[in-house]
Automatic annotation (TrEMBL), chain A:
Top-level lineage group: Bacteria
TM ranges: 6-27, 39-59, 79-102
Lineage per the UniProt record: Bacteria, Bacillati, Bacillota, Bacilli, Lactobacillales
Official protein name in the record: Integral membrane protein [Lactobacillus plantarum JDM1]
Keyword terms of this UniProt record: Membrane, Transmembrane, Transmembrane helix
Keyword Transmembrane applies: yes
Species per Swiss-Prot/TrEMBL record: Lactiplantibacillus mudanjiangensis
UniProt-listed InterPro entries: Brnchd-chn_aa_trnsp_AzlD
From TrEMBL, chain B:
Source species of the chain: Lactiplantibacillus mudanjiangensis
Listed InterPro entries: Brnchd-chn_aa_trnsp_permease
Sequence similarity: Belongs to the AzlC family.
Name under which the protein is recorded: Branched-chain amino acid transporter AzlC [Lactobacillus sp.]
Keyword list, A-Z: Cell membrane, Membrane, Transmembrane, Transmembrane helix, Transport
Protein's membrane topology: Multi-pass membrane protein
GO cellular component, one term: plasma membrane
PANTHER family: INNER MEMBRANE PROTEIN YGAZ
Length: 108, 233
């Protein structure tokens, strides 16, 4: 392993660690204003939606994103499994099996 | 998932999300192998950086010989959403020790964050450090092992996506988002669906101008503001 690779890993690790830990230390020692608590209470639903939609789109610099058809198709049975079972494991397994089938059948 | 907040229930609750770590971890190991990164380098990266999408970017930029400063900046931008998640979850650990807080923050991921938000709906809005330690540590161990196995398997398998494993992480977020919407009683269903719709449309528009990770950050911030505005007072 070269020093280029090692120093990149260590620096990137430090930056990521600080992003994770500083908020914990700050929030522990500060009184969080009410508006910020309300603002942050929307982080889960907003960020999970954003992560999901990101996976359905393909970025092309300077153009509109296109739809990731394979992910879109596999999402449909996965959402169905969620509604039927309310089980995280069932959603994940249904989605993976659906994706394997989509690739096998060459649908996307 | 029940209301129990022990270390052991943390280990148990995180199990369904592990498929996501395994799927992405194997894929990352395989990519690392094809990029000629040694098993040791992959292991150190998984233990030190511990962030799926950032590690993919780091590997591709290393392969391209990008300057260290550019790789660090990209990593920061991709992981800056961690700041939002850490701030959001840290409120539940204000009474825990500083050491607990640092340890919880160090191993927090998108997945264990989302899992915790689901757990809150079962526990009358409380979390315990030992519960999240359990979930975090198991996820961390599985991630390191999966990336190393992926690197070794890289010599045998050329296309990990063939088995649909790359969808595990998307499936996990579908499940966590759905459970979040139906179990979060602190907000009306209508408010939550409005935020989902707003963020989804915004992401599509933003990805005309920004790569996914930047779009994600802007859409989340604006989505939170939008949520405050549409909440009935």
């Amino acid at each position: 392993m070269t020093t280029y690779i090692l120093s990149t890993i260590l620096w990137c690790g430090l930056v990521t660690w600080l992003s994770r830990v500083i908020p914990f230390v700050l929030i522990k020692n500060l009184t969080v204003p009410k508006w910020l608590i309300e603002f942050l209470s929307f982080v889960p639903v907003a960020i999970m939606t954003a992560i999901f939609v990101e996976s359905l789109l393909v970025y092309h610099a300077g153009h509109w994103p296109t739809v990731n058809l394979a992910n879109l198709y596999a999402s449909i049975p996965a959402i169905g499994a969620g509604i039927l079972t309310k089980s995280l494991l069932a959603v994940v397994i249904t989605g993976v099996v659906a994706m394997a089938l989509i690739r096998l059948l060459g649908w996307a | 998932m029940n209301a129990e907040l022990t270390f052991k229930s943390g280990l148990k609750d995180v199990v369904p999300t592990l498929f996501g770590y395994i799927g992405v971890g194997l894929a990352m190991g395989i990519v690392a192998n094809t990029s000629h990164l040694s098993v040791l380098a992959v292991l150190i990266m998984s233990l030190v950086v511990y962030a799926g999408s950032a590690q993919f970017i780091i590997i591709s930029m290393l392969l391209a010989g990008s300057p260290v400063s550019a790789i660090i900046l990209s990593t920061f931008l991709i992981n800056s959403r961690m700041i939002l998640m850490s701030m959001s979850i840290a409120q539940y650990f204000k009474k825990a020790s500083l050491l607990d807080n640092v340890a919880l923050g160090s191993l927090l991921t998108d997945e264990t964050f989302a899992l915790s938000m689901n757990k809150l709906n079962q526990t009358k809005q409380t979390l315990a450090p030992r519960w999240l330690h359990g979930a975090n540590l198991l996820a961390y161990a599985i991630w390191a092992v999966a990336t190393v196995i992926g690197d070794v398997l890289g010599q045998l398998i050329t296309d990990p996506n063939q088995f649909g494993l790359d969808f595990a992480v998307v499936g996990m977020f579908i499940g966590l988002l759905y459970l979040q919407i139906i179990t979060d009683r602190s907000k009306s269903l209508q408010t939550q669906l409005l935020v989902v719709l707003f963020v989804a449309i915004l992401m599509t528009i933003l990805m005309r101008f920004f790569p996914g990770n930047i779009a994600l950050l802007i859409a989340t911030l604006l989505g939170c503001g939008f949520g405050m505005v549409v909440t009935p007072k």
